[in-house]
Amino acid sequence: MGTPAAQAQDTAAEVPAILGTGDIGRDDYLPDFSYAGYEYGVAPIPHVAREIAVAEYGAVPDDGIDDSAAIQRALAAAHALTGPVRVQFAPGRYILSDILWIERSGIVVAGMGSGEGGTELYMPRPLNQMDDDGTLDELRQYLVQYDKRERQRDANLDVLFSEWSWSGGFIWTRFPGGRHATYLDEYDPPIETVATIRSGARGTREIEVVDPAALAVGDVLQIHWHNRAGENGPLIASIYGEDREGFPVGDRHWMLPDRPLVRQATRIEAIAGTRVTIADPLLHDVSDALPAYFAKWDHISDVGIQDLAFVFPPSPYFGHHNEAGFNAIYFTGVHNGWISNLRIENADSGVLTDDLAAVTIADVVTEGDHPAHYAVHMGNVHNVLVTGNEVFNPTVHTFSFNTQATRSVYHRSTGWEQPTLDQHAGANHQNLYDDMTVHVRAAAGDDGEGSSYELFKAGGAGYWVPGHGRYNTVWNLSVVVESGAAPGETVTLVENSGGPDARLVGTHGNRPLAIDYEPAPYIEGLNQRQLAVPSLLDFQLRRR
């Protein structure tokens, strides 16, 4: 793993060895993360010119009157149109006490900026006082049926988890009638198979299908891989490796074989006979031993939320999984969408996600003294890019790759208040922390052998362990130790719930660093700031 240096050293001349030739068959395989984001990483967020002003429907800022009904009328008018449309707010404060649903493609909700002189949405009451139209009833049933409770005996707390702990938002996107978060298998609808895939190689974009008749260029579908072979099936091996001695794999990976364990939403780019080109590289091989198929995916597209501040009142913190629902955005069921230029204050969670692909979340600032569950969260998503996320508020899970997140990226973001890189268990794999900065206060070791910080502090249920699958990558991480370690003292970055085949390249800081991570990861350039390739995402984009 190398010996910690006195302080971070720059390595400008050498490209890291793991980049190699890009051979997808190598033992030190590194996924191509450059497909994360809107339009698979190669197009800017669009401007939507057609406008509906909320003022035309009676929403007046700064008058102290609740604006919910007027905003709802403006949003309903946008839904009644066809084609892209921007629902535009003026500068000032609007009071919102209801959920704003976005349920069709092409709708953008926009303000005049997130800073001083911009647009502020003020939510005086939490979501647990709102009508969610029954959308979370399945989750509520699940919590009761499986007795999912937050138990803290020392605090005399024993309550059912809040359904708002990781779900819901005051702006909420969804496919009409869609079920983007799945909890109880009795509600699973039949999966509509579009085409069976005969073969394909991990990391490539060309596949062979049995019959392409039902496919068309431009179709956005999901590729499904199921684990129908139990605890030691080939899909488990593809996610976690052949050698799993020393770490368990939770039984949720094989208890529901009719549910896909891995889903990759992608677009059909070309069809030539039975050969199909997809928009982004395959997550896994497809073969007789590892079968997969194209499935229908209900989603909306080209949806955006931008240039707004979300402000919640100061409120008590009732603890983990006991949140009342001061959540800004719940982004679900979207392909090719964006969230940009937001400020979120005093939230329980800033941005929550589910069932997304090819989405960019850019320049979101979360702040305030209220502890949050999540800042900007990624769960059950594929090819999502979070860039420029500044997290000033305390969080339980700061930068979170949650259940079934795949090939998504946190990029050039900073955590300021005891942040965590949360790899949350549940078959999340092939994800990237890229050119990140964390500000930490280290803790003195009990044995007098130096200080440590539990940076890789993961969550997740035991039936979904380990914390992550293969090829999760941390690239050029800067660790700013603000206190707790003397100059020259080594600080150990601790992981206590990780997973196999992690890649840690260019981890450095203002103190010498050591890494305590199991199973043992690939480590290159410890205590060396990577200048030759400061951002893996940017490097891979240029190489495309």
Automatic annotation (TrEMBL):
This is Rhamnogalacturonase A/B/Epimerase-like pectate lyase domain-containing protein. It holds the Pfam family Pect-lyase_RHGA_epim. Residues 54-113 form the Rhamnogalacturonase A/B/Epimerase-like pectate lyase domain.
